[in-house]
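User: I'm new to structure prediction. If I give you an amino acid sequence, what do you actually give back? Let's try with this one:
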Amino acid sequence: MVKTVILIGVGGFIGSVSRYLTSIYVAKMVDSSFPYGTLTVNIAGSLFIGIIFGFSDRFNWLTPEWRFFLATGFCGGYTTFSTFSYETINLLREGDWYLGFGNVLLSVVICLAATFLGNFLVRII
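Assistant: Good question. You get back a string of structure tokens that encode the predicted 3D arrangement of the chain. For your 125 residues, that looks like this:
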């Protein structure tokens, strides 16, 4: 258990720093008020977690420790959107269309509303 937590923590550290550096790099490359850095990170993280689990499922190349380090740690630190994407794809792949699309709708709408509410509450304090 301790080894797993350390692997996730180290992966998360590397992922978080990578997210920051990627966002800074993209912002320098593209001069825009649109958050292209975040979009790039979300797309790359989603692609990477798909590759990780694809290799893991198809070829059984990754040990559980490597999956924790790469998927939960690195991808989790890089972007939680990758986990959301993977879990939604799994629901759809299993034929749980209502749950899959419900997850998309609820996650986007409720998370945006929660962000708005949190910002609003701080402003009225």
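You can read the tokens as a compact description of the fold. Here is one thing that stands out. The chain is about 85% helix and 0% strand.
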